[in-house]
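Repro case for the chain-ordering regression, as requested:
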Amino acid sequence: TSEAAQTRTRALVVTQNGDSSVLEVQDRDVQAPGQGEVQVEVAAVGVNFIDVYQREGIYPLSTPFVSCSEGAGTISAVGPGTSEFAVGDRVAWGQGLGAATGLVNRDVESLVPVPDGVDLDVAAAAMLQGMTAHYLVNSTYAVQPGTVALVHAAAGGVGQLLVQMVKAKGGRVIATAGSADKLEIARGRGADALIDYSDVDDLAVEVRKANDGKGVDVVYDGVGKSTFDASLASLRPRGMMVLFGGASGQVPPFDLQRLNTGGSLFVTRPTLGSYLADREELLERGTSVLEDIAAGRLAIDIGGRYPLAEAARAYDDLEGRRTRGKLLLIP
Ligand code: NDP
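-- result from build under test --
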């Protein structure tokens, strides 16, 4: 019956640490929303690398757990003690585990309202990567007119957003990617110089060639293990290395003395959670990203939509470098 359907949901469960074969879609009961919660009918769930790190156990969680931290949908019921949202409101989130297609209960503190003019699948695609690119260019290293930024994996989810946001602030982007097709995507987003890092002898030399022989102000590096050394070697004195992920693997411990020989370099390893310190900061970043989309200032590239039952294939594609932009899981 429709009533029974209302109380069941389909969740993506990590049964144990491992590769994508440990993922299982399970039917779950959904209770009425509790204190400070709303119930959301989910339109789309975002696929992210953090899901991979959690599944593999690099970010330890006790198994089994319901995967994924990003989505968007329409509120179908409001729990006690909640006045901020009402039934019918469209909301999105980029933090807090619990992927499901169907109904899901969410803490209202995790939700950002979706403005008119932004589709729910676009909102689901924009939250985690969008707020990440937002803090990286505004807060971790405040890009100014004339800032030269090296952006790795520039056709990827975060990468395409970084290119657009650096350009919007008047910066210059040197973009890397693993194929000519992907570099064309980065160019389409506004990148000024393009380097295929799968096809160079010395990446740092190519970066300097693309910047009048000088080092860059900031490197945004979500690739990690395979690019870290070249990223450090690409910086100007007092430049900043922003290591924000490890799509190619985690960077091993390194000798701090290298920051000295590179010319008083800075290294940071930021994470979204510490740049969403309170509800105010979440609303500020989330709303800024969604309003830029609504106004046509920020483009979201949905590179693939997968039914929840095919989530393993989505992750295999992401980890296998076969994707561009953002992947979604849909009902
Ligand atoms: P992407 O869409 O960028 O996909 C990853 C890309 O990395 C690939 O498409 C590929 O592009 C490149 N890559 C290079 N080497 C490898 C490799 N060996 N294996 C897999 N991919 C490789 O993913 P996301 O935008 O979702 O995430 C990008 C990075 O941002 C990740 O490291 C993620 O953890 C990080 N992140 C960090 C956050 C934070 O707050 N710290 C928040 C959100 C994401 P190509 O083929 O062009 O090389």
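Ordering looks correct now. The two ends are 19 Å apart (CA to CA).
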